[in-house]
Amino acid sequence: MAEITGTGDPARSLSLLWRLVEPAPRGRGAEAGLSVDRVVDAAVALADTEGLGALSMRRLATDLGVGAMTLYTYVPGKAELLDLMVDSVLGEFPSLYSPAADEWRARLEALARASWTQYERHPWLLHVAASGRPPLGPGVLTKYELGLQAVDGTGLDEVAMDAVFTLIEGFVAGTARGVVDQVAAEEATGITETEWWEATAPVLDRVYDPERFPTVTRVGPVAGEAQQAAYDPRRAFEFGLARLLDGIAVLIDDAPSTPITEVLPEKSPWP
């Protein structure tokens, strides 16, 4: 189950995100040299190495060598901590993003590749639902600013600029999740992708009917040989990103004559 940002106290989260308040170290916290930044850094390190499932205020306090009640002096609870963690790692984005300033396609490609790198560094981000109530701290807003700048001056209106950024981000998260899922499967089973397919093949050979699945019979082996797997998320990323940018190019070419609001549905398809 995904963790959700924005479930804590909004005012307290924002105050901490922008460091409008900085709890003064005292007691065990002072002895341990605690600060909000150090608590967040320790939480990110724990999530990076062991996943979000390992993160709790009690576990984090133990790692920092303080009692749980001391930790609450710096961060009100896990909900606010999650907001701080997400904003902190997104604050790394400018150091990963090296765009070509004169061409929108190169900027968007750089944006996507930097996001991919973030998910590789912090795979737990893929298990955080942050789009509905994003932590509006400096890290989140800086990445959003850079994403919008990537398509600024292309002729897209403001709604389309936001939609393109959201589209790129959603695509990268979807393909990066494939890498995380493969790693998780290997860790859970103790066998590699190749070993899994080798174990599957003898049984599949007994039940598989080429006449029932003629297109699978023709395409599957060729694609599998090329990818050396049933699914290669990195190939999917490269192929999908190129096609996505091709589609955005059409949108940009049509931008002066077709505002994005004319092609968006009047209401969400979701109930």
Automatic annotation (TrEMBL):
Portion annotated as DNA-binding: 56-75
Which positions fall inside the HTH tetR-type domain?
33-93
Please give the biological process terms from Gene Ontology that the record holds.
negative regulation of DNA-templated transcription
Keyword NADP assigned to the entry: answer is no
Q: Name one Pfam family in it.
A: TetR_N
For molecular function, the Gene Ontology terms on record are: DNA-binding transcription factor activity; transcription cis-regulatory region binding
User: Per the record's keyword annotation, is Ligase included, yes or no?
Assistant: no
Q: Which UniProt keywords apply?
A: DNA-binding, Transcription, Transcription regulation
Check the record and name the PANTHER family matching this protein.
Answer: HTH-TYPE TRANSCRIPTIONAL REGULATOR RUTR, TRANSCRIPTIONAL REGULATORY PROTEIN
Protein name, entry field: TetR family transcriptional regulator
Origin organism lineage:
Bacteria, Bacillati, Actinomycetota, Actinomycetes, Micrococcales
